[in-house]
Amino acid sequence: MAPSTAEKQEHSDKERASHILRLPLDATRVDREPHSYERWMVAKLMRMAGSPPICFRLWNGDVIPPESGEARFTLYLADPKALYSLVANPNLAFGDLYSAGRLQVEGDLAELLETLYRSVHAARQKWPRWLDTLWRNHNPRATGIPEAKENIQHHYDLGNAFYQLWLDHAEMQYTCAYYEQPDLSLEQAQLAKLEHVCRKLRLKPGMTVVEAGCGWGGLARYMARQYGVRVHSYNISREQLAYARERAREQGLDHLITYVEDDYRNIEGQYDAFVSVGMLEHVGKDNYAALSELIKRCLNPEGIALLHSIGRNRPMLMNAWIEKRIFPGAYPPSIGEFMGICEHGDFSVLDVENLRLHYAQTLTHWMARFTENEDKVTDMYDAHFTRAWRMYLAGSIAAFRAGSLQLFQVVFTHGDNNLLPQNRGDLYTTPAAPGEA
Amino acid sequence: MAPSTAEKQEHSDKERASHILRLPLDATRVDREPHSYERWMVAKLMRMAGSPPICFRLWNGDVIPPESGEARFTLYLADPKALYSLVANPNLAFGDLYSAGRLQVEGDLAELLETLYRSVHAARQKWPRWLDTLWRNHNPRATGIPEAKENIQHHYDLGNAFYQLWLDHAEMQYTCAYYEQPDLSLEQAQLAKLEHVCRKLRLKPGMTVVEAGCGWGGLARYMARQYGVRVHSYNISREQLAYARERAREQGLDHLITYVEDDYRNIEGQYDAFVSVGMLEHVGKDNYAALSELIKRCLNPEGIALLHSIGRNRPMLMNAWIEKRIFPGAYPPSIGEFMGICEHGDFSVLDVENLRLHYAQTLTHWMARFTENEDKVTDMYDAHFTRAWRMYLAGSIAAFRAGSLQLFQVVFTHGDNNLLPQNRGDLYTTPAAPGEA
User: Fold this and answer.
1) Domains plus CATH for chain B?
2) A349 contacts B335? CB cut-off 8 A
3) Over chain A, what HEC string results?
4) Which residue intervals define the domain DUF7884 in the entry (chains A, B) (predicted)?
5) Minimal Cα–Cα distance from B423 to chain A, Å?
6) Contact between residue B13 and residue B380 where contact means Cβ atoms under 8 Å apart
7) Which of A203, A317, A364, B184 could disulfide-link to B189, CB 3.0 to 4.6 Å?
8) Is 50 exceeded by the pLDDT of residue A18?
């Protein structure tokens, strides 16, 4: 009997996930004594990482304590080769070994990573240049039109069922929420984010909006439903678009929304607003000038543009493991590079807001739901996949908490537009978040 | 009889003003017929400026209409040499000729300049590179410690009595006000600006603040009075400091405020907040890295920094006339260059707000008061000085309206500071402006 469509889909999801995430080397448990130079390597590695409060437990049970003070976390290394990979390229190997089960963490994973990021951030100022070069992310993926399609499908086409396990149930938002109040639920905070974005765009009924990268289409539906605007939303993830269109039909919003399966570079027409939430990370530096020219072209003279993206305090390559295993081709711009997009188009930047800790909180909510559903995830894919995603979510919490990543919302207009809001008070007159449902 | 101190002061103010602002060439009225190539030069000049709706009236009464459409403004040129200066270096000569009375404007000066700036901004994309080079601002003044002192004294030590004629009567603010509501008075809007800045710094009683460039000390007094913080304020303008200290004594705030006559580069100590309103324009690009390192050094780990400065949408030299005659050494950074200051210090940018049109409105208020007091200004200095300042104020209104200048308020913290405000709603809970006095 031929497998059903759903079964086929699940099979191909599994293949995609395991093809990309699995390490070529299998874990090979050994229990020989560690050599003295292996102990030296561990100590040296920890010194390069700024001597964080971490101890190592080696494959034979030997424990190497931190250089000073008490250990708050323990890293278990299952075999000598794991140690060698870690020394050769810690950025890449840490995630790979964790996913393979050959590096295990005792203690809270996100807290360990935050401690490590803070420690490494301070210590790397003193690294010799060759070490920085050796350990940096080599050969990140390109982001031309065909590569972008692969990059995006690698991640976003893992299956809607998977993302539904841990994203919010309101609008399937896979971007930073807005915790207007610290105790909001994930659903409330995601709706507050959508509302906050709409307010920044100063939407009015009848306006036209173009959206670059629409995920599962939640923002487009929110804008159409709450503000009565007409939206063109572009995306190259087929799975997401199928979901988006179905929801818009169900909600009777399809006369206001056109979901377009195409690259953002093919956007045509002119609109009262340009919005992109969580796509810029995938655009790549080489394409910033073209993106700027695109916005220039398709924004009405009095239109407002908003870009919402993960960013950095200063230019830095994407973490190698995230870029290779999770988000191929991803690059979060520094705030200066981000402003370069605006400068290129001679735009006037009206408003920049940094929601860094909101993303840490969003990810904490995602992680809690993911953790509850780990068994299901393992059933859908396998244990390797589950560990990789646990590492990715925990690492992201840590990166936003430690300040290695930022979340910028940038609002800008054409440089000669004088129809500007008097101030930003209108964003704050009523709560952006709905009451608890 | 020896002149009194006040007379001496007035005399030296006059000398300073006339020394720097007067053109070497005197106006030499002629009434000969213009040559045909002189008419050609006018037409060519207007074409390079994008054919704005301006007609020229020449020294003999001949009128040259705009290339197309009706003229909204008339420029009167008093002599042929005025035309040659204008062609050779319009950026510099326009202001110089206007100040000398050899170029006169029929129609609203600020509106003419706005029209011209918008027209030139569009037209210059098509200029040959040599023209841009020829007309650019050559040899702007340096901004090292000794030059900075001269630059600042040139402008800010013109005499407090002069600035009191047209600045607000509340706190002598010579920076962009905050028109929270469009109908605020200048005084209300300046107090609202001070309040808005304090809210962005999240000041609490007992905190310590360092201020780089304090003008007449109004922000320091506002912070001490309204928020009970201790302030160290640096300035190198002696006239401003004398005024600032006297006011602080009168108001019984001198136990909370130390006004320091020194360059910002000599700031010492660590503070809960770093603030600079309207000084960055004078710092100069070469000193941005040092400024960043200074803030890094003197901001407490949980401190907040705020820089408020005129800026640009993209890097561009300061207008030659403003830089040479009004603000020697001035350079407004592009938003990207501004962010470069934050990147250099590994700071996290929390908030950028652009108050461009607020500066146009502030300047419109200043210009109205200046216009009412022109006779007094001419008595204090001379007619040349009065025309130069009229040109400077009108040109600034035009630059902010046309979008050639921006006003950025940028808030940032150390990159690893997690004690951040939940959102920006606290800036908007109550009006920042006081009720009408």
Assistant:
1) 25-135 (3.30.1050), 145-427 (3.40.50.150)
2) yes
3) CCCCHHHHHHHHHHHHHHHHHCCCCCCCCCCCCCCHHHHHHHHHHHHHCCCCCEEEECCCCCEECCCCCCCCEEEEECCHHHHHHHHHCHHHHHHHHHHHCCEEEECCHHHHHHHHHHHHHHHHHHCCHHHHHHHCCCCCCCCCHHHHHHHHHHHHCCCHHHHHCCCCCCCCCCCCCCCCCCCCCHHHHHHHHHHHHHHHCCCCCCCEEEEECCCCCHHHHHHHHHHCCEEEEEECCHHHHHHHHHHHHHCCCCCCEEEEECCHHHCCCCEEEEEEECCHHHCCHHHHHHHHHHHHHHEEEEEEEEEEEEEECCCCCCCHHHHHHHCCCCCCCEHHHHHHHHHHCCEEEEEEEECHHHHHHHHHHHHHHHHHCHHHHHHHCCHHHHHHHHHHHHHHHHHHHHCCCEEEEEEEEECCCCCCCCCCHHHCCCCCCCCCC
4) 43-121
5) 6
6) yes
7) B184
8) no
Query: Are residues A37 and A56 in contact, defined by beta-carbon separation less than 8 angstroms?
Result: no
Name which of B335, B350, B356 to mutate to probe chain A: the one with the most chain A Cβ atoms within 10 A of its Cβ. B335
- Residue located via tokens 């994407």: A318
ipTM: 0.92
Picking from A229, A203, A234, the residue whose alpha carbon sits closest to that of residue A217 is A234
Q: Which of A336, A353, A428 sits opposite B351 (nearest CB)?
A: A353
Which residues of A fall within a CB distance of 8 Å from B348? 313, 354, 356, 403, 406
Percentage of residues of chain A with pLDDT beyond 90: 81
pLDDT tens by residue, A157-188: 888 999 999 999 999 999 999 999 999 999 99
Q: What is the pLDDT of residue B28?
A: 58
pLDDT (tens digit, 9 = 90+) per residue, A245-280? 999 999 999 999 999 999 999 999 999 999 999 999
d(CA B240, CA B217): 8
Note whether B342 contacts A356, CB cutoff 8 Å: no
Mutate to test the interface with B, among A348, A359, A404 (most CBs of B within 10 A): A348
pLDDT at B22: 42
pLDDT tens-digit readout, B251-291: 999 999 999 999 999 999 999 999 999 999 999 999 999 99
Q: Which residue of A has its CA nearest to B181?
A: A422
Say yes or no for a CB contact (<8 Å) between A349 and B401: no
